[in-house]
Amino acid sequence: MIPVLFFVSVIIFVLINLVPGDAARLFLGEEAPPDALAALRRELGLDRPLYVQYLRWVGGMLHGDFGHSFKDNRQVLATVLQKVPVTAELAAAALLIAWAIAIPAGVLAAWRRRTAVDYFASAGALTGLSIPNFWLGIMLIYLFAVHLHWLPASGFVPPAEDLGRNLKSIVMPAFVLGVVLAAFVMRQLRSSMLEVLSADYVRTANAKGLGERVVLVRHALRNAVIPVITVMGIQLGTLLGGAVITETIFALPGLGRLAVESIYGRDYPMLEGVVIFSAFAILVINLMVDIVYSLIDPRIKLAGGTS
Amino acid sequence: MSLAVEALPGLRRRPAGRRGIQHLARRFAHNRLALGGLILFVLILLTALLAAWIAPASPIKTDFGAYLQPPGPRHLMGTDELGRDVLSRIIFGARASLEAGMISVGLGIAAGLPLGIVAGFYRGRLDDVLMRLTDAMLSFPQLILALAVAAVLGPGLAKAMIAIAVVLMPVFMRIMRAQVLTEREREYVDAARAMGAADRRIIWRHLLPNSLAPIVVQGSLNVAGAIITEATLSFLGLGTQPPTPSWGSMLNAAQQYLTQAPWMSFWPGVAIAVTVFAVNVAGDGLREIWDPRTR
Amino acid sequence: MRRWGSTAVSALIVAGLMAAASAQGTGGSATLRVGLDADPPNMDPHRSTAAVDRQVYQNLFDKLVDTDENLQIVPMLASAWTISADGKTVTLTLRQGVKFHDGTPFNAEAVKYNFDRMQDPNFPSARRSEVLPVQKVAVVDPYTVALSLEKPYSPLLYVLTDRAGMMVSPAEARKAGTNFALHPVGTGPFSFMEKIPQDHITLVRNPDYWVKGQPYLDRIIYRPFPNDNARVANVKSGDIDIINIVPLAQIKGLSQEAKQPGARFKLIEHGAFRWQGIWLNVTKPPFDNKLLRQAFNAAIDRDAIANVVLQGAAYPAYSFFPNGTPAHDPDWKVPRRNVALAKEKLQAAGRPNGFELTLLVDPTLEGQSIAQAAQAMAADAGIQVKIQIVEFGTLLHETDTLAHQAAVLGWSGRPDPDFDIYPFVTQSGIGSFNNAGYTNPRVQTLLDAARLLNDMNQRRRAYREVTQILADDLPYIWLYFPKEYKMMSMRVQGFIHVPDGMMRFRTVRLGQ
After folding, report:
1. Cα dihedral: C135, C140, C143, C146 (round 10)
2. A265 contacts on C by Cβ (under 8 Å)
3. CA of A239, closest CA in chain C: separation in Å?
4. Closest residue in C to A270 (Cα–Cα)
5. All partners of chain A with 3 or more CB pairs under 8 angstroms
6. Which of A20, A63, A158 is nearest residue C21 as measured by Cβ atoms?
7. Measuring CA to CA, which residue among B51, B37, B99, B85 is closest to residue B227?
8. Does A283 lie at the interface with B, CB-CB under 8 angstroms?
9. Is the whole model's pTM more than 0.90, yes or no?
10. How far is C144 from chain B (nearest CA, A)?
11. Which residues contact residue C393 at a Cβ distance below 8 angstroms, ignoring those fewer than 6 apart?
């Protein structure tokens, strides 16, 4: 994991320093006299050569200090951790919604392949993939918040504070995020179930006279789940990316919004902190997926050194 | 650290060669839905290519006397806030969206393919470094990577396509590498080597053709994703520059007039959905012809 | 495993924060929920540069003087003031019995501290250029301050109605230094409770406010909504009570909705304070040639922009001074579109077939519509405009370094005409927004002279002459003055709409 994180840190550091625009000028505005600019650059450490800035940053991180925001000096790590619960809840809710839609749909589609049910479910999945999520989000707000007043148009209430309002505020954004994931998972599940259903051991089970539903659940589903989990691991980056748009439209104070506004605001330390943290999270989750994968199917061993 | 997992389960090597292709094409044609998708896609492609002849009006000519008009006889899909004909903009918009879809995926494949081959064939240190690099890129939230790259490169559709390609590159690299890893163990590779064939010949004539299947399928599915990503980048202010229409930027501009002029959001949304649908369905068809068991 | 240790600690911090947040609750008996167009980055008025910060400051900090709804100066922390006969000394009599939120007293020493802070070269303050004319701040007695100026400076009092006049607690500033922004302390009707970036800012009622009875609200919660549609939708759905910026494109639709019986929101309008236009770079081609600037200008149809593209939500603009501001000239004829004139100018410049230019614009939808409209209009005269969308940071960079040819930009406006014009057309060094690179000695002389004059009528004459010169030189192509709107729920009562667009909540109550 370390070498990967190292590459991530280099990539983001290089990228953000390539973006045009002087951070000090942006913060002080046009009204800044040149000596004030110089003082601010010194304060932010921008007057040092790039490699020194990079080393200072990495060195700080190894001590748990992710630096301070350029905007108002608050701690990067603390701010990032503040946002994590929101994005985590959004992602988890999206995942649940995706499973709730995709698993029954995928199983049904595979079981009743090439019938109306299959076509309908597959078409639904394709539609989920075809709608830009920002458009869907705005449509949902207008329908459920403005016209029907069933759900709040925006905002996040922590679950510890008011669980009811928390759930209401997360439903629409989680749905928008989850719909795309549901489409992917459903299609993947369907195709891997079809593959499994025609496998020899399933035919044997059928021939033995086990009920169709038993066969379905006990054997086919369990084996088909494996590639589904893998797909979801890969989709994590997309999920966090989609959260960017969703959080912007629904005004959720999560990591995605923090990242975007840090890019626009040239808040280098904040952006770097978000990216490193997200990369770390994605890597950890992928690792857990691998572990789960190997637990489910003992035939698969975790690859050793070279991967 | 991650498992060497096949990108798409159940894909097997199919014999290459002309007879094989005809066989595959015929199987594809049997799948009516996929065929329909392909035909629809070709129609959209033609619309984009022949836009100048098909469109009833100029997509960029403003008409301040006829702004925000609902669909009617003169403007079948209505007009936007500057009086431009929405139908013409949709037709010309196909160009930007299809370009974004196909070129960014093409670039991603062009960059990822050679890297994947090199990593899979030669293994060793190079493979390690490349895999770490790919893992690093894949653990970036995709949109943020695209945004950062686009911010560095500057505005414009071309730059946005490069940004999307950068995000897609590691995916294709991984797939190619996985395929090469499997293929290089096959007997025909040993045989070729025994006959004294050089590495390059083995790669070019044997490995590559046999490894293309998942790339093609993944690529076709990514085209759809790239179209949506272009729309999202337009939403964030990057991507196609005005007044060139693209469905994504049309959707973006239409947001302000949601209640006043709903036709401005409806048609681009439909255009995106239909195109992405067609591409996905055709891509599915491609996937199915390579593995009969998923039919 | 040190990283796990700090992660664990951080997790505890987060849990603690969440517990604390839940203890506060989101709504009290009278909580006003405000939607802003951006997340205010900085709570230190001496370091702030974003316009949106000022919205929060209005209720957190008092200023030395304030403006009323007619843009007249009224007392605030200074209960009276006198200007010496030579104009070089401004003596402020300070209000007594005012305390900062941390309990320390507001007095002349505090005022002096604030000025010193703004002018300290080691403390990069964005206010320094605004208070540059103040050479010395003398504490005459505990409640009297004398500001000594090098020369008379008539805009000074108006400058003190904004951030430069906002008084921060010296005790807190000394303690916190550059971290003042994390726990700001002022004397305003509300005090600071918390700020969670990109989530919310909470202010609570100041029970010791020096205006008896005010404020009426218990709490204000500010939330950022950069997405226009979401901001408007939240008012309509009742989740937000008032927003600061209403997207101009939606004004027409919203005003019709507001008139329906049973409408849940109201839309109010009062004057215009800002301007939007195209800033030209006169230091390089093509706009180093005055004839080409005039050609471009003549091709623009300001009426169409104000009444078609913006559907009447703006006034056509001809200068720096919007309708309702003191230097606005209601008799001035806004230039009409004249394509023939444009072509004449092109001929005179030796470019009968037109010329090309690149127009930079930020990603806002309004900006894009305007840029495309200008492009279409210019095309009729043969001028080819290429539009480039660049995000705001890059846009500022390009215009700062005078690398652009033309850019769609605007100005948020100030109550005193001097600040609306001086930084844009003079080579004033620091504090300059002169991203056109324009110099004109006559203009410089006139504007410097206007600063010395105290009588607004005299100043208006100077500004009129400058406007005439600029109407010919055209370093900027003024397009429109956006009308000042506020959209709020029916619950909001007692809101006083000041044309500067700033939301002052001390008189506001929440009805049913």
Report:
1. -30
2. 41, 393
3. 20
4. C197
5. B, C
6. A158
7. B99
8. yes
9. no
10. 52
11. A19, A20, A21, A26, A264, A265, A266
Kindly compute the dihedral angle of the four CA atoms of residues A200, A204, A207, A213, in this order, to the nearest 10 degrees.
Answer: -90
* Cβ pairs B/C, distance under 8 A: 74
What does the alpha-carbon distance between residue A86 and residue A68 come to, in Å, rounded to a whole number? Answer: 21
**Contact indicator for A255, A83 with CB cutoff of 8 Å:** yes
pLDDT on residue C466: 93
Work out the average pLDDT over A68-92. 83
pLDDT for C172-215, tens place per residue?
Answer: 999 998 789 889 999 999 999 999 888 899 999 999 999 988 89
Q: Are B226 and B101 in contact (CB under 8 A)?
A: yes
- How close does chain B come to C253, measured CA to CA in Å? 6
Chain A residues with CB under 8 Å of B146 CB are 241
Question: How do residues A161-183 score in pLDDT, each as one tens digit?
Answer: 788 888 888 999 999 988 888 88
Burial C395-422 (b: 16+ CB within 10 A, else e): bbbbbbeeebbbbbbbbebbbbbbbbbb
Q: Cα–Cα distance between C59 and C66 in angstroms, integer?
A: 12
Which residues of chain C from 375 to 394 reach within 8 Å of chain A, CB to CB? 391-394
- Give Cα separations from A116 to A103, A191, C47 (angstroms): 18, 17, 64
Closest CA to B159 of B170, B168, B147: B147
Contacts of B194 (CB under 8 A, 6+ apart): none
**Per the structure block, which two tokens stand in for B77?**
């899909």
Structure tokens at A201: 């051991």
Closest partner residue to B133 among A7, A256, A283, by Cβ?
A: A7
Q: Do C178 and A39 touch (CB under 8 A)?
A: no
Transcribe C152-204 into DSSP letters. --TTHHHHTTTGGGBPPPHHHHHHHGGGGGGS---SSSEEEEEEETTTEEEEE
Chain centroid offset of residue A56 CA: 29
CB contacts < 8 A, A to C, total 179
Looking at the partner chain, which of C6, C42, C433 has a beta carbon nearest the beta carbon of A72? Answer: C42
Residues 6+ away with beta carbon under 8 Å from C447: C418, C421, C422, C425, C426, C462, C466
Beta strands in C321-420 (DSSP E): 356-361, 384-389, 406-411
List CB contacts of C106: < 8 A, sequence separation 6 or more: C77, C94, C95, C98, C99, C100, C167, C187
A27 inside 8 A of chain B by CB: no
Give the separation between CA B73 and CA A285, rounded to whole angstroms.
56
> How would you class C381 by CB atoms within 10 Å of its CB: exposed for 0-12, middle for 13-18, buried for 19 or more?
buried
The amino acid sitting at B10 is G
C53 contact B CB<8A:
no
Q: Which residues contact C211 (CB under 8 A, 6 or more apart)?
A: C189, C506
A150 interfaces chain B, CB cutoff of 8 Å = no
A45 within 8 A of A56, measured Cβ to Cβ: yes
Judged by CB atoms closer than 8 Å, whether chains meet at C236 and A146 is answered as yes
Are the C-beta atoms of C302 and C335 separated by less than 8 Å?
yes
Question: Which chain A residue has the Cα nearest residue B265?
Answer: A135
In angstroms, rounded to a whole number, what is the distance separating the alpha carbons of residues B179 and B11?
A: 10
Mean pLDDT by 10 residues, chain C (512 residues): 46 45 49 93 87 94 94 94 92 94 94 93 82 92 94 91 94 90 94 89 94 92 88 89 94 91 92 93 92 94 93 93 88 90 92 92 89 94 91 81 91 89 79 82 91 89 93 94 95 94 94 80
Cα A256 to Cα A133: distance, rounded to the nearest angstrom: 14
Q: Which residue has the tokens 């890893």?
A: B181
What pLDDT shows up at residue C158?
92
Closest-CA distance of chain B to residue A305, Å: 7
In contact, B164 and B230? CB cutoff 8 Å: yes
